[in-house]
Amino acid sequence: MIAGRVLRLIGRRLLSSLPALFGVVTLTFLLMRVLPGDPAVFFSSGPNTGQAEIELIRERMGLNRPLIEQFGFYLRDLAKGDLGNSLTSGQPVAKDLMARLPASLELTIAALLLALAVALPLGFIAAMRPDSAIDQIIRVFCTLGVAVPTFVSGLLLIFLFYYLLGWAPPPVGRIDSFGSAPPVWSGFLLIDSLLAGDLETFGAALSQLVLPMTTMALFVMAPLARMTRAATLAVTTSDFVRTAEALGLPRARILVSYILHNAMLPILTTVGIVFSTMLGANVLVEKVFAWPGIASYALDALLSSDYAPVQGFVLMIASIFVILNLVIDLLYSLADPRVSIE
Amino acid sequence: MTDSLLSVSDLRVSFATPDGAFEALRGVDLAVAPGEVMGVVGESGSGKSVTALATMGLLDRKGRITGGAIRFRDADIAGASRRRLRALRGSKLSMIFQNPRSALNPVRRIGQQIGDALGAHLGLSRRKATEEAIELLRTVQFRDPEQRMHSYPHELSGGMCQRVMIAMAIACRPDLLLADEPTTGLDVTTQKHVMDLLVGLVRERGMAMVLITHDLGLATHYCQRIAVMEQGRVVEENEAGTLFAEPQHPYTQRLVAASPTRESTIEGLAGGGAVALPPRMAPAHRAGQGPLLEVRDLVKRFSNGTLGVDGVSFALAPGASLGLVGESGSGKSTISRLVCRLLDQTSGEVIFDGQDVGAVRERDFHRSPHRRDIQIVFQDALESLNPRFTAFDSIADPLRRLGGLRARAALTAEVEDAARRVGLPIELLDRLPHQLSGGQRARVGIARAIAVRPRLLVLDEPTAALDVSVQAVVLQLLERLRRESGMAYLFISHDLGVVRMLCEQVIVLRAGRIVEAGDTNDIFEHSQAPYTRELLAAIPYFVPGGRATQEAPPDVTGVPA
Amino acid sequence: MTTTITRQRGTLRSRRGLLRVANPATIAACAGVVLLVLVAILADWIAPFDPLASNVRNALQPPSARHWMGTDQIGRDVLSRLIVATRLDLSIAVSAVALSFAFGAVIGGVSGYVGGRLDRWIGRTVDVLMAFPLFVLAMALVAALGNSIANVIYATAIINLPFYIRFARAEVNMRRHFGWVEAARASGNSHARVVLFFLLPNVLPAMAVQISLNLGWAILNAAGLSFIGLGARPPTPEWGIMVAEAARFITTGKWWLIVFPGLALTLSVLCFNLLGDAARDALDPRRRT
Q1: How far apart are CA B473 and CA B467, in angstroms?
Q2: What is the 3-class SS of B484-533, one letter each residue?
Q3: Residues B165, A243: C-beta atoms closer than 8 Å
Q4: Quick check: is C288 in a domain?
Q5: For residue C231, what is the domain's CATH number?
Q6: Residue A172 clears pLDDT 70, i.e. is over it
Q7: Which tens digit of pLDDT belongs to each residue from B308-337?
Q8: Smallest Cβ distance to C250: which of A28, A163, A226?
Q9: Which residues 233-262 of A have a C-beta within 8 angstroms of C?
Q10: What is the pLDDT of residues C103-126, one digit of tens each?
Q11: Domain ranges in chain B?
Q12: Which of A253, B41, B157, B461 is deepest in the core (most CB within 10 A)?
């Protein structure tokens, strides 16, 4: 019975996110058509492509046809997974993106976990002891944290931990030049090296990951802690917590079933928003740390007037975000009985 | 004093506000004997809720007990540790609150919440606890408790939520129950069910109860002793029968004079000075003219498919007053908006002075010449005044838009005239709404509506949010205005007592349909419809001289499951 | 919770409202913002050196008596560049926020008032917009329309739009059925007048409070975009560009190239944030974070 309800929920939410996905696809299509220059050239396989090949591409993309037909071809290509080729790498964009996606995901997910592990407890403690010294400290930390730009904090961390203290390795990517990548299972270096039992590589990968992960986490810790504090405070001063106290319920029960359960709901929504911000901040962090992810790939392409990767990147990010929202929505519906399945 | 269950002596409570310390309680003395039902009445700001919260140790973080003592069974609890308080709460002392829906955990099933209450003090096995919870639900008159155990609060009505709260509060058999305005927000029939149930349970289990309320009728109906509070102090305390029959303290006397009774009339209602009212216009004077307002087969279906108004027809003569009464969901507010042309009907006609104003869409009605003939006064709690407009601006707007007055001098003259007519001091015209009291805001709302001298005034619960003494004054003002100006009133209310005083005719609504209509006195004395009789029976009339005898026994078929 | 104290809601007009928020941090933030604006306006006169004048022999000097913040890799005075950059960063932020505020208030206000299908469609469009993280959309827009400061302003404004649309929509929707709105209709105002002269003036103060917070965010984003090469470009002095150029030198310890622009960014954002928080508290103390 529960499984049926969950499946129906997933189905409905999936349906409701289709318009957003469609909107993203359409918007990207329009943007790329507005480009100055010849789209066929952009989606060809290299700067030295012959005229014949360009004509072929033009035919395939339907550039000589009305816009609506072009859109049809575009959708057909997307469905086949064809995102065109990168001028700079010469490879299909889809292949490049898939190869580099794990790097970005590993960084973002690790940063999110770190941020949650620090921000949630901090926010919670601040809310349980409002206006105390620790609350003030946490609030100051939050206010400052939101004000420092990510790229500045990244560079300062490098300065402190690499240049001054020598604790961190040089910020040149996922693994230092001496290490070798473990066999690829998930694409996540940390997981793959553990699976292969290669602790040395694990250590190397982790040490490379620490600084960029911390930079990104710092960026979102402040809003997360703030939201946790606000949500928890709102719940602790609510009528139903007062009722629970009036009935003399034990502290633990009130904390878990009354406070935490209810505070989790707005926090969950915030995590979704925060993840989206992190996807954007990816660009900055990958640039500072020369991290070989999809954002740096797209950025390099953009600055070289190579547009197919940019389009692919935009589509990929937006899709990830839509899927993420779906998951958050789902979790929220399961957690909050007031949200109807319809 | 040793035989009192709870004794509060010289209790002082102070709150820290950004504007300095606020003394909510200034020396409160109360004593409750075992098994006694005590009432604490007062208007807003009297400190009655604060007293209960302080007793339970549930004051806001910003509140502190600054003096006095609270003793429960001769043991001091004002300074008790959190652990001791936790042990006492729910097991010896219990409290139920207003707004029952928000007082229950929205993400936890009610069966689990009752289980929590049981588990806090009684070491029951899981199975026993479930059985006990089901039994409690049955005691508070849930028809199928086994099913209801799995419901969430948002699936229940307000009355049901309150009954769940009662179940949780009595679960561990406390000696004393504090009930803080437990029926606020409930329909009058639900209110009666809940109060009868509550008091019945309390008597059955030999519990003592403190009923905190602003409704004198409710207090005299159910309580043995009553204490009157004003501004943080108990000003008088006595047996229910004698307190209001022979009030000693001036405040109590004022309160009694302002509270509507079964027989009171507008003239007799005193609130800060009786006002001589001009004589009523004789009905014969009006018979010759056609009706001012005629509503035919009015239907309103909302966008979600529900039928708010289902074929309502009535007529209103010029200068007459008609009351629309009903519980929530009866359609009375919807009808008021339809008549006032703020909402379009699905079908049916609204005819004003012989012209079909219903044919004009609501988005165009502001241009109609009849816009100034039909005006509306709102319930103050719904933020009826623009927070950024001074009183002057609020009253001037209709004069500008509908009266065409632009010149400053002419405008000011009219605004001041309207203010004078409603008894609003001229110097208050420069104030913003948050700088005015509830009664003053009500006057500004009325001035705004009558500034353009409408012929029909729609009043949507104008006194529902006001203290009873202020309500008396505003009602007298409304009656005086009607007699002086010859306006017709369409008065919407859930409060039958007020309608009885103010309206010559009354229509009883239920689920969008008219149940009964006619002359007010006829309906109140000899109602034909069972629903009307049920409504009338549920009103807790204020009878100063003693406890009222019960009307016909409560209609059990109406008990919500 | 219902307590029986009636608390007067402070408006910024009332003295009490102002007193409540006049604590040292807020005063300092206010002073900071004023300083920023002054520096932006008077930049050309107060900069000690020409921000574009290079002097390669003097390159990469740490802070000294002559160059308070040191020199960069081609000998330009960091302090002067910092001062002149204030103008660019502030104007980008102000333009972007002003655009999104104006459009967002009207679109959101109308959407919240009218409801129905218009509201649903606007909601869907907002959802699509929000599916693009800022940097991603900025990259896409810059790719499509060209790399210029104007496009960066538009991109920032577009990304910020959903925030104001949702805010305005929620505020208007909340008040749509209040007594004074219906009274305005009964007083002879058309729907358009109600939205423009009654609802928006009531909603705008709350939104205006967000502007200060928003400005901080916009400065961060403008700097971030120029850091990755979109928008302002060298040799224009701009805080993000200064950090981008300095990035190479961090591994060789030339800290002043990063620290001073970073400090400028942090402090300006901090001032705007504190000011915004104070304004929000003055309007409604219950919403304190």
Answers
A1: 10
A2: HHCCEEEEEECCHHHHHHHCCEEEEEECCEEEEEEEHHHHHHHCCCHHHH
A3: yes
A4: no
A5: 1.10.3720.10
A6: yes
A7: 999 999 999 998 999 999 988 888 999 999
A8: A163
A9: 237-239, 242
A10: 999 999 999 998 888 998 898 888
A11: 6-258, 292-373+455-540, 381-453
A12: B41
